[in-house]
From TrEMBL, chains A, B:
GO terms of molecular function: ATP binding; pantoate-beta-alanine ligase activity
Annotated protein name in UniProt: Pantoate--beta-alanine ligase
Biological classification of the source: Eukaryota, Viridiplantae, Streptophyta, Embryophyta, Tracheophyta
UniProt record, GO biological process: pantothenate biosynthetic process
Gene3D superfamilies, A to Z: HUPs, Pantoate-beta-alanine ligase, C-terminal domain
E.C. designation(s): 6.3.2.1
Protein source organism: Olea europaea subsp. europaea
Matching Pfam families: Pantoate_ligase
Amino acid sequence: MANKDPLMITDKDEMRKWSRSMRAQGKTIGLVPTMGYLHEGHLSLIQESHKQTHLTVVSIYINPGQFSPTEDLSTYPSDLLGDIQKLKSVPGGVDVVFNPKNLYDYGNNDNGCGVGLDQEGGKVVSCVETGGMGHETWVRVERLEKDLCGKSRPVFFRGVATIVTKLFNIVEPDVAVFGKKDYQQWRIIKRMVRDLDFGIKVIGTELARDDDGLAKSSRNARLSPDDRQKALSISKSLFKAKFAAENGQNDCQELRNAVIQAIHEAGGKIDYAEVRL
Amino acid sequence: MANKDPLMITDKDEMRKWSRSMRAQGKTIGLVPTMGYLHEGHLSLIQESHKQTHLTVVSIYINPGQFSPTEDLSTYPSDLLGDIQKLKSVPGGVDVVFNPKNLYDYGNNDNGCGVGLDQEGGKVVSCVETGGMGHETWVRVERLEKDLCGKSRPVFFRGVATIVTKLFNIVEPDVAVFGKKDYQQWRIIKRMVRDLDFGIKVIGTELARDDDGLAKSSRNARLSPDDRQKALSISKSLFKAKFAAENGQNDCQELRNAVIQAIHEAGGKIDYAEVRL
């Protein structure tokens, strides 16, 4: 069943203008930030937004600020037309798809050296810096960004916090919805909203899984059947650990080792496995 | 001539509620962020705000996030009642004085260690960290914050960018007015607003000086007559350098050395003197 066509907006001033005109009419706005290549996990975020607000904006933007030059920015999957079809399949559809071209292009060549700082003064770490876009302001959630995924992806959470701040300032939503699949990200966004006093309610939704237990994910959608089978070792071993913990196993080291062993045996390379309270 | 009494607001939710209700009535809002102990420089910012918007909010908040533990947070001058009298003396007065108690107190003891990071994981650098307030999100304008004043005050611009972000998110103004006396700060705020896509117009006003040429400043107001005389070497030598440059002196090193020499001779200790284009 196809619902209404979303309004497509690519310009940030037009986006803000739309939001302000809607708010002036007493409408509340929900934002679902995505990098596209949508799956059922995203669609559940949209349904949550529908419950919270009159209107829903879905942003589709692959953020170069959260990729280091050695990561998969250039091969990150995208399918805008497919995404729009999926958005139309959600009951109620969505009101706006915000699909900007480049949120770090400020339309001039002023690269921030105005008071005499040269390029060498800044750290070159994400695809934004290496792209020479002149952007130099970053939001850092200094403790939560360091550990877990932050260890192997040092620019990631800085880039996420910054692009979410930008999207909040452009869309000016009342509510924003994130998936708890990316649990550390979820905690970082919550902390950032508290610490920077954003007037925005942040909602987290549980992760969606395929029938075999694999988390729904844009990257997981591209796994070969063989790799997919191996990847199941992650959810299987985590569920096993959860069951063990619920039934009295309170040795974190043993829980952790069992997960590591199961993933290793399936041929996986592990960035980290940690038990956190 | 006394103008209207400003509405006094100390609670951030009440502040945002006021702004939203005014905006819903079609009013535009100007924000003048200050640390209090107001002087004519501040009052000129308010007059600029009056030109730009229907309503003006003046925030008075001494921001611990921009002081290192060795700086003058505890002795920074304040005089709220005197400030309110001065605000009433401005033609048109002001609409709101936002005077929060502690913008880093989030009303709980959650210090950000939720995913197992301990206090040691974070850098302890400003009075916010040493105060144990649990705040951990900072806005960094990574290149512009490093040089000039940033060299001798490493936490300063991080603290300024962060508190301005917080005030923007609480007050949600259409326009914000800053003095160009703090020129590096002015450039940093402009860059931050661009890079984080705030929907706020930032206005800079020229600095105000006393008749003898000394910049109007809360800290300068506390100089002894003797120190005040010495401090005049700063403006005098800068005016002299300006005059020399306008009359053909294009050797930056000579311009700089003349300023340094004049301030030294008056007994001043110099953090930096730089010529920037």
